[in-house]
């Protein structure tokens, strides 16, 4: 059945996990051991119903709805925000649990993760490079294909559009939902027909004859109608901008070419983000990473859970049927959400020891 | 051993199912007292009638305890993960039509589409500190639909009945439910989103991919041929037989 591993493979994965944990400890991280059971509310609030479909939900008579931890990042961030001194480096080794809704894939529903997380506000690009280079060194013997991206560049591109703020907010909100993002961008560019209902509403016909029901208030509706009217009055986003976004999302090239290729898109708002990318690439090169064999994809990280908001990376095996060997990225916004008014730049990632074991076994 | 046919145990769904099989020369009827869930099959050899709640038929098909079963296409899609790997659709039966839709308060003049719903959910979460609540019993279908459409900032609240009343009772802002005429929705001051159709359901004859068809292959082929699916029976119904 899905998820079952033979005892020898399990022992091998555990052994590799211990080896990775040892390397993380030597790199200066403190080990952290979060609970298996996590309050569901926090995770649901962060990730929405997606996480309910992917995680095992159970109930506790006193603590309410709980989840078998689907990842370590949230409890690690919570632990740091509650008590951690700065800067901090954490590592962990343990099982995560993911419901598998598809019978064919044979993806395991429980597996080990070995992780390393850096909370450091002094030099974010150096911290990005530290995590990536550490993973690259630990996985070098497997010769994985590494891909990097940067959600910060996508955010900068949206923030740089010359249009009204509500449009930019909506686009920023949907960077991780490509389908809705493109639909919104098309609508703001005037490429989609405006429905009759919408035209009537904007023209002032807001009567429905229906009694008011529900928690949403008439004032909230009035506020939204005001936004719709402002939107109808605003100039459409030029088609040329939509084309620039298409080109940006398609951009994929060796990492050392990425800054030049991004500049060639002609989006001046990207300059600070491109400068950060250049600093990160320099920091990687200083740690002996060859950025000409490293792959950059502008859309990388768009279809994963939405907490990565800057640098993202994946180490993948040559066999596309296998899950990635390692993934990670920057999640500054997550520390803000969980920090109760405080925040700290944070970056980290996880390695899957069972995938490492499988690849080592083939050699 | 016999080929087991699962049929809803009561109501119009049962009667219509009996009619549908009857029109194809197979007599299904309940036996014993009015309250006893026992049935008989006439006109087909080696077929046993199993009377079940329509809601349990997907599970019984997935477990392979029945070979064929009649239930709503919505229930199969909602209750079974990766449903098409567990059961095969033999035939839509032309009755039991109902649409699974998303409905919002009729007083929301600014909401007509999923685009609107998404924008409202985002603003609602900012204003109320919680995600927009959608009451439904069709968790998988609704979740997959809204995720595919890229709608954010909602949560599902379970509602096993009287779902249309949840908005007025302030336990949800939106409902996702089955409707055929829309009358209950209108009576509860709700309206359907113009692009909020999640699934058009009807009673459907399903075949289990998990059942042991070798138990009486001849009876299975004969039954499918008599129902007018000779070709499907010949082709092994996609590898089932």
Largest sheet: spatial strand order of chain A: 1-5-6-12-11-10-7-9-8
- Provide a count of the helices of chain B: 10
CATH class of the largest domain in chain B: Alpha Beta
Shape label of chain A: globular
What portion of residues of chain B belong to β-strands? Answer: 25-35%
Low-confidence stretches of chain A: none
Outline the biggest β-sheet of chain A.
9 strands, mixed
GO biological process, one term (chain B): L-histidine biosynthetic process
GO molecular function (chain B): ATP phosphoribosyltransferase activity
Catalytic activity (chain B): 1-(5-phospho-beta-D-ribosyl)-ATP + diphosphate = 5-phospho-alpha-D-ribose 1-diphosphate + ATP
Protein name (chain B): ATP phosphoribosyltransferase
Task: Please write out the topology.
The complex is a heterodimer of chains A (363) and B (241).
Chain A: H1 7-26, E1 30-31, E2 37-39, H2 40-47, H3 49-54, E3 57-60, E4 64-68, H4 73-83, E5 88-97, E6 110-119, H5 124-139, E7 145-150, H6 151-159, H7 165-173, H8 178-188, H9 196-203, H10 218-233, H11 239-250, E8 252-254, H12 258-263, H13 271-286, E9 295-297, E10 311-316, E11 326-330, H14 332-338, E12 346-351, H15 353-362
Parallel strand pairs in A: 1-5, 7-9
Antiparallel strand pairs in A: 2-4, 3-4, 5-6, 6-12, 7-10, 8-9, 10-11, 11-12
Helix pairs in contact in A: 1-15, 5-13, 7-8
Chain B: E1 3-8, H1 11-22, E2 27-31, E3 38-42, E4 47-52, H2 57-63, E5 68-72, H3 73-79, H4 83-86, E6 87-92, E7 98-105, H5 114-128, E8 132-136, H6 139-148, E9 154-158, E10 174-179, H7 183-187, E11 190-201, E12 203-208, H8 217-226, H9 230-234, H10 236-239
Parallel strand pairs in B: 1-4, 1-5, 8-9, 8-10
Antiparallel strand pairs in B: 2-3, 5-12, 6-12, 7-10, 7-11
